[in-house]
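We emphasize that the prediction below concerns an isolated chain of 268 residues; any contacts that depend on oligomerization or on bound cofactors are therefore not represented. The input was used exactly as deposited, without trimming of termini.
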Amino acid sequence: MKHLKIQLLILTMMLAGKAGAQCSFNNEAFKSGEFLSYNLYYNWKFVWVKAGTASMYTVQSQYRGQQAYRASLITRGNNNVDQLFVLRDTLLCYSSLNLEPLYFRKGAREGKRYTVDEVFYSYPGGETSLRQHRIRNDGQHEWKNTKFTYCIYDMMNIFLRARSFNPEGWRSGHDIDFPIADGNSVDPAKLRYQGKTTIKADNNIKYRCLRLSYMEKEDGKYKRIVDFYVTDDKNHIPVRLDMFLRFGSAKAFLTGMKGIRNPITSKQ
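Result of the prediction step, given as a token string:
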């Protein structure tokens, strides 16, 4: 009986190690110092108008004493569009150098509504432990602690990981399912591969792109949140984003890039 208990303990430790390891992923797409810039457009009464700019910056940093990637995405509307609605989103995440989610924050001002979501990740005993925090529009704070036996992501960390996916052999309609966390919930989500196309960016260069749809489950049905058009090369740089917002739809087109890791072989 004693030997059986020891064997079960060893097996449990091995399985716990595997559960923790499955949250790791090899980064082949970006390096520290990558900077991407975009023009934003908003659909107003069937007319696309210049709405502002966005930028994404990824750098190697530290999170609670460990080496990590820090990625930030900032969107800013211009004064003309501010008269219609105010768009001020700031997203931040930290991930380990093996792309394990460590932290996520989203501060969103959309119209008169402002909310903050935070997710703190840890991995005790091979499990995924979340501490979730939401600051509501009325200023109230909500905190929640949850544990899972599988990996959890947020909209920034899953995007960093997805950039290193290998799409070889994928057919249109191929789905990658994963759970997505925000400040107070964990819900089913998926990335759907929609095939290849050519996209002209706002830098006047055409790129061969993969189309990926990010979808979240609402009321039992999957709803498209963002369509990503990423370069069909090892970088998987977002060239265009189609965003389906509460108050309408918006698009982002690439204007510039710096600090790219791999050769850009998708130029047309």
